[in-house]
Amino acid sequence: VCRLSGSYAGGILAAGVFSFSRLTWQWSITAEVFSLNNLFVGLLMALTVHFEEASTAKERSKISRLGAFCCGLSLCNQHTIVLYVACIVPWVLSRLLKKTELSLGHLLKLGLCFLAGLLPYLYLPASSYLNRARWTWGDQTTFQGFLTHFLREEYGTFSLAKSETGSSMREMLVSQLAQMRSELSLPVLALALVACLSAALPRRQQKSSVIWLFAGMLCVYSLFFAWRANLDVTKPLFLGVVERFWMQSNAVVAVLAGLGLPILVSLAGSMLEGGLLWLEWLSAVALVGAQIWANYSTCDQSTNYIVDKFARNLLSSMPMGAVVLLRGDLPGNALRYLHYCEGVRPDVTLVDQEMMTYEWYLPKLAKHLPGVSFPGNRWNPVEGVLPDGTRTFNLHRFLKVNK
């Protein structure tokens, strides 16, 4: 923001209102993919601005290669960023083509840089082949298994759930807009709109290309996500799942607001025939301060040990050598963290009931569960033999052979 607009206050506004929003703050103190995705979103946008501001072909070439690498690397963390990558890549290529700097060799180098960013994916088949992880997801030793994991087919590719019927596209967009207003405030949304409108002014043509790109990224992401997010946001649980993905669009809105602030102050200053730099800083500090004031008490979790105590109490209550059946993210992840990472109660064995329904669970994890007998290939409510020869067992049979 500062590089594009020349306004330090605008940069502080963009960073502050986004970082101290309830949603960003909440997920930045949680072990999830979303905070790292926010970092990649900011990185790609910053590189886009650096590319646009570059003055020489050599500098543009260097930034474009770095950007291609970061695009690939960002896709190793969360799939939704592919929508931003799909907007940025054609824009960069078109700018290079317009300046007659896009040769076949340069295009090949960009492709190789992008593939280099995807190298962390090699860990999946390597880890799956070695099979030393006591907890993992999927079997990536085959190409089909890798593709299943890469495309999230077990959840539903480009969907949040495999079989849920969610809210309509219109309901999803209305909910997103309401959430933006709640998270970022109405003045911030107004400033973002000012930035978009200013891009149409002739004297703003130097900045308009990047502003339109960011606005396009916001629209593409919001429309696509509203179309594919198949969860009912009228239910608080599902709303909590969906709103995490709105941080990616909130980041763009915050940047546009940071660009809109100096534009609005400059316009007001020209009308009043006087400098209003103090108003720019006052507005930025007030809006960021309001975010901190509104969200600190809710987001300050420095004394919250509820999940830790919950998991420790559960583990401490188990008899020696117990086999613990897990179901659900909260008990499952909490107990697994303490057991596998901190070595709490090494005598107990953790078995995930839901994971036993997947065909890869026993081949990959059974050897890491000594002392547990599995009377078949995978768990199923109805015991028997499937057409492909898979022997299923139910919970009654499992408990009977492990009593």
UniProtKB/TrEMBL annotation:
Keywords: Membrane, Transmembrane, Transmembrane helix. The keyword Transmembrane applies. Pfam families: TMEM260-like. InterPro entries: GT117_domain-containing, TMEM260-like. The keyword DNA-binding does not apply. It comes from the Eukaryota. The chain crosses the membrane at residues 6-25, 32-51, 66-92, 104-124, 209-227, 247-268, 275-294. PANTHER family: TRANSMEMBRANE PROTEIN 260. This is Transmembrane protein C14orf101.
